[in-house]
Amino acid sequence: MRRKLVVGNWKMNGSRTSNAVLLSEIVAGLTASGAASAVCVPAPYLAQCQAQLAGSALGWGAQDVSAHAGGAYTGEISVAMLQDFGCSYVVIGHSERRAYHGESDAQVAAKTVAALAAGITPIVCIGETLAQREAGQTDVVVAQQLGAVLAAISTDDVAKLVLAYEPVWAIGTGKTATPHMAQDVHQVLRGQVAAKNAVAAAGVQILYGGSMKPENAKELMAMPDIDGGLIGGAALKAADFLAIIHAAD
Fold it and tell me: Which residues pair with 206 in a beta bridge?
């Protein structure tokens, strides 16, 4: 069985003081759990995570990375920098990066390649807008997004991916895909991964990233192809984040 994974995406939130409290509360509340957990934080707070979380069961990572190894790319963050701060994960291709920064499927694929080469697990985000869903284009859209990544990586590297399905229309809107709606897309994604590497596909974790909360986490993660969650707002409250982690058991 695939191990469940619950990752908090803090987005552009936090302060050194509030982070210290949140992280300590999460670590204190982690029990012997079958699920893995991590937080992906704004880059300025990676050093704080490294200092506070080293040796704990809570992993940490970043919210973006450059496809370039280094050089004249003002404001960008390289994989080597993430390695310096002990990052295990990096979120790549989040819908907000695609929408607000114009990230293309090709750029997402290039960043994925860079992360894999550095031994950092990429959490590759895939999802459709409300207009695309209403037009019946969900499967086509997610297949195109995932296809660009699969085409750029080796067959062996497929096993090192984590995918996150985030229906854009369900993020911060109060709407949530039903467990069966989410499962349908997760099943499509796993089938596409299997076409590249059938053995690896059975072990690839596919997270749900569409407003998972304590109230719906258990039902969502009971679906056969939903292997955890990429958590937004609920990750900023220790009690809510811990409830989702515990629901994964």
Answer: 163
